[in-house]
Amino acid sequence: MHLRQLREAQGLTLEELADRSAMSFRGIVYIEHGRRNPGLITILNLAKGLQVAPSVLLSVFDDPVQ
User: pLDDT tens, 27-37?
Assistant: First the structure.
């Protein structure tokens, strides 16, 4: 997941995203550093906090069209 790039592109701090997503600061750090895999509810909360569609968070897994 390219969470950090999305967060930084919006100029959000970890604390701001945590607040907007109703998550803990540490939880977001763990996800950004690959130490935790988010579940569906977490992905939905992060998408809400970033004001993007959940599919944007998962787009890193899309295969490029040939």
Answer: 999 999 999 99
